[in-house]
Amino acid sequence: MDGAERPDPSRAAAPSLPDGLPEPEARAPAAAAHWLRASAAAVDETFGAGHAARHPELVAAMIQACAIETAVDEGRGTSARVLDTLRSLSRETNATILKLKPKLFG
Fold first, then answer.
1. Secondary structure (DSSP) of 15-76
2. Which terminus of the chain faces fewer neighbouring Cβ atoms within 10 Å, N or C?
3. Which residues contact 63 (CB under 8 A, 6 or more apart)?
4. What does the pLDDT look like over 3-40, one tens digit per residue?
5. pTM for the complete prediction?
């Protein structure tokens, strides 16, 4: 890797969601409400006014898709943080071993 700082995708939020909430669990109710409104609006925009109210199963499917995508994004962000931590620990461990090598092996 080039060592460049990458944005953390797990902390990205839709503009209408509250900022500064530290954990995904704390963001979940606001995110669910946001996706409910957005999904209903998208269904009505696509199929005509009132379609979302007549077809809640379509809105539910869209919310489920949003939840899956959010979970995938959270997983990617977590994986990236874990990999960065492991790379850092590996560099530090290797540097320490190289420093100790002459003392241990003469």
1. TTSPS---SHHHHHHHHHHHHHHHHHHHHHHHH-TTHHHH-HHHHHHHHHHHHHHHHHHHHH
2. C
3. 32, 35, 36, 39
4. 445 444 444 444 344 556 556 667 778 888 899 999 99
5. 0.54
